[in-house]
Amino acid sequence: MARLTRAELEAAHDRLVPDVVADGLHVLFCGINPGLMTAATGHHFARPGNRFWPVLHLSGFTPRLMKPSEQGELLSYRLGITNVVARATARADELSAEEYREGGRLLAAKVTRLRPRWLAVVGVTAYRAAFEDRKAQVGPQERTIGDTRVWVLPNPSGLNAHWTAATMAEEYGRLRVAAEA
């Protein structure tokens, strides 16, 4: 992937990135919101330090390590990607509490329409804000959206250093086993 300039990244601020979705997914992964690298490239979890793609592979969701540019292939594994908040920012702390709540409402409507087996929100803080559930922890949640179960996963951002790729892969693997059941 070509290195992007600061100007190219800044130009991606507030840009929207299309979801990778279809009906009947086993798991719909849901990020917080697109980062500038994702918005500039149009590929989810595109920032080089983001561990989403390696963890997806290590946990057994994909048979090989995929590149962000191959995100469309996820649909063949009955996996998809969306975000709580659609607009791109440099940092998640640029989002308001109202944006998270509105994102949670829109996400619930999307899940109701698409009916994946599992909604996997990658980031407990984002989940808590979007669904106003201050006590949520990583793992399966009691909440359902229609027939869709909800699982909160650790955020794969390189900033989330207390989760290693190996420990994240264990948690993602627990979801994979549940999704295959």
Computed structural class: alpha/beta
Share in β-strands: 15-25%
* H/E series: HEHHEHEHEEH
Stretches where pLDDT is under 50 for at least 5 consecutive residues are none
The main sheet orders its strands as: 2-1-3-5-4
| Termini gap | 37 Å
Rg estimate, integer Å: 15 Å
- Overall number of structural domains: 1
Name the CATH architecture.
3-Layer(aba) Sandwich
Number of strands: 5
The total count of helices amounts to 6
Overall spatial form: globular
Largest beta-sheet details: 5 strands, mixed
Overall average pLDDT: 93
Q: The CATH topology is what?
A: Uracil-DNA Glycosylase, subunit E
| Assigned CATH class | Alpha Beta
CATH superfamily: Uracil-DNA glycosylase-like domain
Q: Report the helical percentage.
A: 25-40%
Domain Uracil-DNA glycosylase-like: 18-181
EC number: 3.2.2.28
Keywords: Activator, Chromatin regulator, DNA damage, DNA repair, Glycosidase, Hydrolase, Isopeptide bond, Transcription, Transcription regulation, Ubl conjugation
Organism: Streptomyces ferrugineus
